[in-house]
Amino acid sequence: MSMDEIQHRVRGDEFPVLVVTAAIIDLYLQYSKDASISEFSLMVFDECHHARGNEPYNRLLRHYWKSLRSNPDAAVPQVRGPPANSRFLIEKLSAGIAKGWAESN
Fold first, then answer.
1. Structural domains of the chain, ranges and CATH numbers in brackets
2. Of 56, 58, 76, 102, which one has the fewest beta carbons inside 10 Å?
């Protein structure tokens, strides 16, 4: 996908939801002259628990923080990173809540 195609999809109104890899958005933000993280209202990172070092997820978050540091009132997207195994998380949270409730009674 070329930068022109990415820019058209990000800025066009025909795609209310754009599903791409973190690497595509990272490249777009790096190489498009006037690209900004504020063009997005929500970013959902799948498998974000694998992010480390100089990988695309981390580079996207650097764009995010850089935008906020330069302008604390900047319009930045909401960022979500759902856990890889929601059932596991729900079970652990439920167990912790139940334990806390039992200890307090």
1. 3-104 (3.40.50.300)
2. 102
102 token code pair = 């039992």
What pLDDT digit, counting tens, does each position of 34-51 carry?
888 888 888 888 777 767
Helix axes 3-11, 22-31, angle to 10 degrees: 100
Pair 64, 37: CB distance under 8 Å: yes
CB 63 within 8 A of CB 28: no
Buried b (16+ CB within 10 A) or exposed e, 6-34: bbeebeeeeeeeeeeebebbbbbbeebee
